[in-house]
Design goal:
The structure holds two protein chains of two kinds. Chain A is an alpha+beta fold. Chain A contains 14 helices and 16 strands. Chain A has helices at 6-9, 19-27, 31-46, 98-111, 132-144, 175-185, 187-191, 213-216, 233-241, 246-251, 280-284, 328-344, 351-358, 360-367, and strands spanning 51-52, 66-67, 70-71, 84-88, 95-97, 115-118, 125-130, 160-161, 201-204, 219-225, 230-231, 259-262, 267-270, 289-290, 295-301, 315-321. Chain A has a five-stranded mixed beta sheet. Chain A has a four-stranded antiparallel beta sheet with strand order 2-4-7-6. In chain A, helix 4 (98-111) runs antiparallel to helix 5. The chains are: A alpha+beta, B alpha+beta.
């Protein structure tokens, strides 16, 4: 292999930590990492990718979790000719003990390129680059250490959630517990692709939606509350006394004009009925305002990126649901949606595209969910109704 | 053969003690400084989090370095964020500086909290993907080198979320980011008839095209397909189902830039990012033109937006017409939507600015 990488060397410069340094670090002791560097340099020279479609590779019993990948110039880079990826399902919230992380590193030192993504955007720990022969022994070692593979292909993808109640005061339900519970319940759906296309579930504990559930999950769970904001008037006064411009920065920015600042009595007044629980005032006055105590979540469906029929943000399906173990309501709803989608969906048709094709009205009927105004911004304007 | 379907490790075994003891009891938090959060529990306990940046594509020795810091200061635990940052959590305030210093020795900056530019969500690019129209890791490195001061400070009006997808499949789901960079092809697939016969299902390939541009080859002796090039919008969905139809092309490929998306419900509802630059060529290793446009947008936003106003909220307030004027980005016919939800974007009022 040509050791000269003038283009990539440029990316060792500059203040942001360099992935090129990381590949070079590994290349010193791993041949596949060394060839990865060469392939990347060649792409920088040619301005095209040098990877081919994956073949069908995997581990026994699974159809998911391994992405097959081959280099299109194997004669130049024999040690990265096959460079498959293993998706390792992360522990909910991406918390790790150093013991478990070191185990993961040792396994990948033995069986792979030593390069990883911590993490891929779906949430998995990505082990980047190994041979077909190493897949099964690597997988066996992973399960020995308590890890398992995540989803890929037309399967349920690894479920992800925000940090939640582990370290956030705004989480309206226990995101980690829910993510872990659903992940354990749906192992079969994660590991054995059987659907028209991928299906994603993501859970955010509050409407700030730190895991972007509304944009990229077919089944979106976003925490909210049924009762009203909790306001600590003394803490509010503290903000104001310290020069915080509550009128401009909070009251005037309230999207539903639910707040009023009573300058005379130094009191923040809330029209509880007008509040849409957007989080703005809570975000800006963390010590003074908190979500209500009657926590739960809004269930939305259909979020996805553009391919094929365009991007969708998830639509409201259930405005409020209590999210408590054993989570039967969510599990039943998921199974019902999957059955219907599996029955009616075309190849590579995501849930939102199917619902748009068949109509939200018909979908609701199939699900047995009564329509409510919270599902739409506004009712229809045209007269073409199927009675 | 080993076990199957055991699932991921139980998160409860991965939590540091300080988190376990205050789980679900958190009262409030403060942004102490860039990269440092303080969470206070109902019990009175305080926990400090040091957040540092990461290149995301890292070696196992990098992870071991992180573990060394966590063993020394954080009870043998650490976490990663949804934006690939690393978080070191400690209940001992005096550990904070030590963590920051040791991370700095590894070249990892503290930051990405509050009104900052946090780490970039991105895809694999030329590192691992067959359908990439641009690289991701290198483009991200080039952008973050320029945005570094915004990662290590909290001086922007609101946080700015950046995401990179190396093709329009967008496995990184970048379409609701303040700034999104998307790899695009501009040339139709090149059909390899022999490979089509060997590797592809012709009906599936025809059905995969959202614009109906793919037909059976009219010559009955050729078991393959043809592409009506005037109908192709280079989505590469056919290439995904049929490897014999690659679109990658050094001259045709490059990136588009989208702005103003968000996922948070705070103030305005979530919104999509909108195209502002239809195409810039790939110029590795530093993508200077792309980085310059992004930097300019961020600087104009920083100088013009109201406090706490996200990029998309700022643009809605000043109007797209003013956005294009301020940024001096030309508005072209490519900006006018002609796909599935196009008419929703056509203006139906006399209200506009100059």
């Amino acid at each position: 292999m040509d050791e000269d990488t003038p283009l990539l060397d440029e990316l060792e410069k500059g203040p942001w930590p360099s992935y090129v340094k990381e590949i070079k670090r590994m290349a010193k002791k791993n041949k596949a990492a060394k060839d990865l560097l060469g392939i990347q340099e060649l792409s920088y020279k040619d301005r095209v990718t040098h990877w081919k479609h994956g073949g069908i590779v995997g581990v026994t019993g699974y159809g998911s979790g391994v992405i097959g990948r081959y280099c299109d110039v194997p004669e130049k880079f024999p040690d990265a000719a096959a460079f498959h990826t293993m998706r390792v399902n992360h522990p909910a919230g991406w918390f790790y003990s150093t013991k478990s992380l070191r185990q993961l590193c040792d396994i990948w030192e033995q069986y792979g390129s030593g390069m990883t993504n911590m993490h891929g955007s779906t949430g998995d720990a990505i082990l980047l680059g190994t041979t077909t022969d190493n897949l099964q022994p690597c997988f066996d070692s992973l399960t020995e250490a308590g890890f398992d593979l995540g989803g890929s292909g037309s399967a349920l993808r690894t479920i992800a959630g925000c940090v939640g109640q582990a370290r956030c005061e705004w989480s309206n339900f226990d995101t980690l517990k829910l993510v872990y519970d659903l992940t354990m319940e749906f192992q079969d759906e994660i590991h054995r692709p059987r659907w028209p296309y991928k299906f994603k579930i993501k859970a955010s504990g509050c409407p700030n939606d730190c895991v972007a559930a509304i944009a990229r999950a077919d089944f979106t769970i976003i925490g909210t509350w049924r009762d009203t904001l909790r306001i600590d008037q003394n803490a509010v006064r503290n903000y104001v006394d310290n020069g915080f411009d509550i009128k401009t920065l909070v009251v005037d920015r309230c999207p539903s004009e639910a707040l009023e600042w009573d300058e005379k009595n130094k009191e923040l007044k809330l029209q509880a009925d007008d509040c849409v629980r957007c989080m703005h005032c809570i975000n800006k006055m963390t010590k003074a305002i908190r979500p209500g105590v009657e926590g739960g979540a809004t269930i939305l469906i259909g979020g996805k990126a553009p391919i094929i029929k365009g991007a969708y943000l998830s639509w409201v399906l259930v405005p409020f649901m209590k999210i408590e173990p054993p989570y039967d309501e969510i599990k039943d709803l998921l199974r019902k949606i999957w059955d219907w989608w599996d029955e009616n969906g075309r190849t590579r048709e995501r849930l939102a595209e199917l619902i748009e094709r068949i109509g939200l009205k018909n979908f609701l009927k199939e699900m047995g969910i009564p329509p409510v105004p919270q599902m739409v911004y506004k009712p229809r304007a045209n007269p073409y109704v199927y009675f | 053969m080993g076990r199957t379907d055991i699932g991921p490790p139980d998160y409860r075994e991965m939590l540091p003690d300080a988190i376990k003891m205050n789980y679900g009891k958190w009262k409030y938090h403060e942004n102490v400084r860039a990269g440092v959060l303080k969470h206070v529990s109902e019990t009175g306990d305080e926990v400090y989090t040091v957040r540092v940046g990461s290149p995301r594509l890292v070696s196992i020795d990098f992870i071991r370095d992180l573990c060394d810091i966590a063993d020394k200061y954080c009870d043998g635990h650490l976490r990663f964020t949804s934006r690939s940052n690393i978080e070191f959590i400690t209940d001992n305030k005096s550990n904070v500086n030590g963590i920051i210093e040791e991370a700095a020795k590894l070249g990892l900056p503290a930051g990405g909290t509050g009104n900052s530019i946090s780490n970039i969500i991105h895809t694999q690019g030329w590192i691992h993907c067959h359908s990439a129209a641009t690289d991701a890791s290198g483009l991200v490195k080039a952008i973050m080198d320029e945005m570094y001061e915004y990662f290590t400070s909290m001086k922007l009006p609101a946080f700015v979320r950046i995401a990179v997808a190396c093709c329009i499949n967008m496995c990184g789901a970048v379409h609701c980011s303040d700034l999104a960079i998307v790899g695009v092809h501009r040339k139709p697939p090149k059909v390899d008839n022999e490979k089509v016969l060997a590797q592809c299902e012709i009906p599936t390939t025809i059905q995969s095209c959202p614009t109906g541009a793919i037909r059976r080859n009219p010559d009955p002796n050729i078991k393959s397909v043809v592409v009506r090039e005037d109908l192709c919008m280079y989505c590469a969905n056919c290439f995904t189902v049929c490897p014999a139809m690659p679109l990658a092309d050094a001259e045709g490929d490059g990136v588009a830039i989208y702005v103003g998306g968000k996922v948070s419900n705070a103030r305005k509802p979530p919104m999509f990012s909108r195209m502002v630059v239809p195409f810039l060529p790939n110029t590795p290793p530093r993508w200077t033109e792309v980085v310059d446009v992004l930097k300019k947008i961020v600087e104009i936003y920083a100088g013009s937006a109201k406090k706490y106003e996200r990029m998309g909220e700022w643009i809605e307030r000043i109007g797209w017409e003013k956005f294009f004027r301020l940024t001096e980005i030309p508005f072209t016919d490519q900006h006018i939507d002609d796909f599935t939800h196009a008419v929703e974007t056509y203006r139906t009022t006399t209200q506009f600015k100059w």
